[in-house]
Amino acid sequence: MANCHVVFFPFMAYGHTIPMADMAVLLASRGLKTTIITTPTNAPRFSRSIQKTINYDHQMELHIIQFKDAELGLPAGSENPDQPVSDELLSTFFEAISMLQEPVEQFIRESHPNCIVADMFYPWSTEIAAKFNIPRIVFNGTGFFPQCVANAVGLIDHAKNVQSDSELFIVPHLPHEIKLTRKQLPHFESEAFKGFLKVLIEAMEAEVKSYGVIFNSFYELEPEYVHHYREVMNRKGWHIGPVSLCNRNTEDKSERGKKSSIDEHECLKWMESKAPDSVVYVSFGTIVKVTRSQVYEIAMGLEACNEYFIWVIKNEQEQWLPEGFQERTAANGKGLVIKGWAPQVLILDHESVGGFVTHCGWNSVLEGVTGGVAMVAWPVMAEQFYNAKLVTDVLKIGVSIGDVEWSATASCDGVERVAIEKAVARVMGGEEGDEMRRRAQVLKEKATAAVKEGGSSYSDLNAFIQDIKTFKSDS
Ligand code: UDP
């Protein structure tokens, strides 16, 4: 049944390429033909997924289009946001993104797919799909809950509702009482974000005009918000995750997205030497920039709380660690510092890991849930403050790091070591932490059941496939 062809076009950030690659693998495993469109620098990110499908005789291909970096004066290879361009060049980066429209349209014209699943950052793909009478499905990298909160926040004039940026207000019309402050909301005042803001507005408009949105989520995680999205917001959305669960063996888990900087067997050996639920994993994902002073405070906080930890830092952050920190924590077996890329899913799935200090990127939250761990929610940017509320206030599987402010520049800063020590102690020890972990374990079981035959995500993926196979354009 390899006649139905779905084209995936991910935005080039890891938080988008990783789940979309898993989605393409998932659809290929159901007998559909899948193609991922990407640019030359980003192509290697998909090689593991392509290899996997070849091994299973499934149909998945890459289609490479050129990125006009040189033409627009961008540094060569700046094809993704984790090789950041300067603030001044951010608008140029998005201009280069908009120039991908033509080669994408050409590919759709030539290959006649049944459907295009395109990232939110390509709003113009809705027009391309309309031109060729195929459905455009949006992927925005988040879940139903953050989408519902963002929609509700957009409906209120929060400038009128509160006296100050730090006063809590209730987000109206939601199934739970969700409280936020103005300083936790996205805001892009700076001139440098003009181009980005324009794309965000176009993305929201295009989402409403598109056929539907595909979510890396599962019904049992956020049932009220699946209903809210479908019935109250009146949008079409399918939940087909957690897609990370399609990576079953050690290699698939440790090479997801990128080859780990640490040998996976060395990492496993370290974790195996620890008791169940005794290790806290600390990671801020791929975009967040942890400042020099914050790196220092995290180190001091981790050492003070005396728990076992695995901490992922960027290579350049090593020199910001306190004197002798790595040597001390390695020698007493307390800490494993991974410089570069960690095998996150492998770590979170390990029984020794019981806690996760996270920036609350959607993938990390979901991977934490499928790992059955309790979380310290430390949001920084994008929709992460909404995701944090899901973790702490709705699912009650984590605690908040405290009073932090949304950052347009993705800068993580200003939390003192005592707050870190206290938050880690709450999730790792005592009845409170155990209770959160018990709830997380229940969700883990539900997540595993959701992707099995007959489960909620398995069935919704069937519904999705059926929908695109029988799609008839209104025009
Ligand atoms: N990731 C990983 N190793 C790392 C850093 C990140 O495997 O060292 C993966 C992580 O498992 C997740 C993705 O990268 O799937 C990050 O996505 P998320 O939405 O959590 O955060 P973002 O980086 O987009 O802010």
From TrEMBL:
<dbReference type="InterPro" id="IPR058980">
    <property type="entry name" value="Glyco_transf_N"/>
</dbReference>
<feature type="domain" description="Glycosyltransferase N-terminal">
    <location>
        <begin position="5"/>
        <end position="243"/>
    </location>
</feature>
<protein>
    <recommendedName>
        <fullName>Glycosyltransferase N-terminal domain-containing protein</fullName>
    </recommendedName>
</protein>
<dbReference type="Pfam" id="PF00201">
    <property type="entry name" value="UDPGT"/>
</dbReference>
<comment type="similarity">
    <text>Belongs to the UDP-glycosyltransferase family.</text>
</comment>
<dbReference type="Pfam" id="PF26168">
    <property type="entry name" value="Glyco_transf_N"/>
</dbReference>
<dbReference type="InterPro" id="IPR002213">
    <property type="entry name" value="UDP_glucos_trans"/>
</dbReference>
<keyword id="KW-0808">Transferase</keyword>
<keyword id="KW-0328">Glycosyltransferase</keyword>
<dbReference type="GO" id="GO:0035251">
    <property type="term" value="F:UDP-glucosyltransferase activity"/>
</dbReference>
